[in-house]
């Protein structure tokens, strides 16, 4: 197993744990109570459906307030962004683009 496979496996596991925490927050009722605290009239809200909405770098819940207002509560997938950074840094190292102290090999 090379470093890319290990990073992808770690990212996948972290993503699944992250989704489990989001879903547990929703099931417990804490999510709607928390979001309602941000509404200017503190109206109660309900999830428009029970599923997370997925994007490449985000997941979210669509919430509907008592007055019909709809919000999308977005949760950025930090692990994906970290993984992209690690791949870019690895590529710089392999190309010799990062020297001692983090400076570019061509600098100075």
Overview of the molecule:
The protein has 108 residues and is an alpha+beta fold. The chain has one domain. The chain has 3 helices and 4 strands; from the N terminus they run ααββββα. Strands 1, 2, 3 and 4 form a 4-stranded antiparallel sheet that branches. Helix 1 runs antiparallel to helix 3. The longest helix has 26 residues. It is elongated. It starts with a helix and ends in a 14-residue tail after the last helix. The C terminus is likely disordered.
Concise account of the structure shown:
This protein is of the alpha+beta class. It has one domain.
How much helix, percentage-wise, in residues?
A: 40-55%
Termini separation comes to 37 Å
Number of domains: 1
**Uncertain residue ranges:** 102-108
Largest sheet: 4 strands, antiparallel
Structural class of the helices, strands and pairings? alpha+beta
By DSSP, the count of extended strands is 4
Features:
108 residues, alpha+beta, 3 helices, 4 strands, disordered C terminus
Describe the SSE topology.
Blueprint: H1 3-28, H2 30-36, E1 45-47, E2 53-54, E3 58-65, E4 70-76, H3 78-94
Helix pairs in contact: 1-3
């Amino acid at each position: 197993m090379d470093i890319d496979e290990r990073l992808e496996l770690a990212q996948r596991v972290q993503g699944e744990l992250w989704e489990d925490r989001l879903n547990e927050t929703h099931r417990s009722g804490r999510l709607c109570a928390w979001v309602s605290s941000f509404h200017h009239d503190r109206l109660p809200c309900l999830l428009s459906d029970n599923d997370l909405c997925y994007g490449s770098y985000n997941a979210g819940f669509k919430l509907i307030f008592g007055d019909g207002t709809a919000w999308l509560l977005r949760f950025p997938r930090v692990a994906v962004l970290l993984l992209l950074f690690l791949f870019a840094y690895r590529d710089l190292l392999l190309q010799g683009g990062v020297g001692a102290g983090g400076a570019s090999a061509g600098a100075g």
